[in-house]
Amino acid sequence: MPELPEVEALAADLGRCIGGSMVDRVDLTAFSALKTVAAAPSSLVGKTVKDVRRHGKFLDLHVDDVHLIIHLARAGWIRCRDSVPVSRPKPGKGPLAVRLVLGDRCLDVTEAGTKKRLALYIVNEPSEVSGIAALGADPLGSEFTFEAFCGVLDEAGRARIKGVLRDQTLIAGIGNAYSDEILHRARMSPFASAAMPTEERQRLYEAVTATITSEIRRLSGLDAADIKQAKKDGMQVHGRAGEPCLACGDTVREVVFSDSSFQYCPTCQTDGKILADRGMSRLLK
């Protein structure tokens, strides 16, 4: 799933690609992806893309007086094409969910796989999208201070820290991959309780800000086509089960639950202990 750093990089790339362009046509091919009914996709036609922003994991295409909000879910992505295909796409065919034609370019929003979770919203204000209205503090925002972070941990009580980092109502934009990376940088177990001592809170806070800002810098300026691979190449533990930890050389381990998983280094994070799978469903809450 695209998380804060990739969505930030996507927003910047799309701003360069389509900023200032007029929408000539909208082809919606995945009707179930459209979650609003107040405005039709055709209402975007004739409007100009003012800018492209990010709210947590949501992309926001500000098109004159309305906003096209996109949540890419687990398997969604966006491609800016320098030419427009001759034939118009057919509904329900292939991974394409919506195509915006802007002059001699087009923007394709796609979703791979059979589980269709990509979501599109056409609204007057981003806050009309419930997922955006409920977002917690953004790690790139000035409000994300150590004191505010401590407030998040206090609110979470004794919840597992892996789940706390992923809870969008507490902290916006962090998902499965970057929570793995943050906990590895902080040398902290995914099972650790949010009710931790001040010095551990400080270490975790610094890991959050350092991980997110370093990834933003690393992905900055990349084209949308290159962002996903660049993210994968920069991972220290996530997605690297069975490989040597880049920090200590121990084998990166994996815990599998439901249809997802997380990775960690026993030496760096759990004093050598191998974590069991039991009770992992709690981390998804």
Protein described:
By secondary structure, this protein is α+β, with helices and mostly antiparallel strands. It folds into two domains: 4-133, Alpha-Beta Barrel (N-terminal domain of MutM-like DNA repair proteins), CATH 3.20.190; 146-284, Helicase, Ruva Protein, domain 3 (Orthogonal Bundle). Helix content is 29%, strand content 20%. The chain contains eight helices and ten strands. The chain has helices spanning 4-18, 130-133, 146-156, 161-166, 176-185, 198-219, 224-234, 266-269, and strands at residues 25-28, 49-55, 58-63, 66-71, 76-81, 96-102, 105-111, 119-123, 253-257, 260-264. The protein has a four-stranded antiparallel beta sheet, covered by helices on one side. Strand 3 and strand 4 (66-71) form a beta hairpin. Helix 1 (4-18) packs parallel to helix 6 (198-219). The radius of gyration is 20 Å and the shape is elongated. The two termini are 17 Å apart. The relative contact order is 0.14. The model is unreliable at 279-285 (pLDDT under 50).
- Number of DSSP strands? 10
Strand content: 15-25%
Mind summarizing the main beta sheet?
4 strands, antiparallel
Q: How many whole angstroms does the radius of gyration measure?
A: 20 Å
Number of helices: 8
CATH architecture of the largest domain: Orthogonal Bundle
Quickly give the structural class: alpha+beta
Percent helix range:
25-40%
Strand order of the largest sheet: 1-6-7-5
**How confident overall, as mean pLDDT?**
94
List segments where confidence is low: pLDDT < 50 over at least 5 consecutive residues.
Answer: 279-285
N to C succession of SSEs? HEEEEEEEEHHHHHHEEH
Regarding CATH, which class of the largest domain?
Mainly Alpha
Keywords: DNA damage, DNA repair, DNA-binding, Glycosidase, Hydrolase, Lyase, Multifunctional enzyme
GO biological process, one term: base-excision repair
Organism: Corynebacterium glyciniphilum AJ 3170
EC number: 3.2.2.23
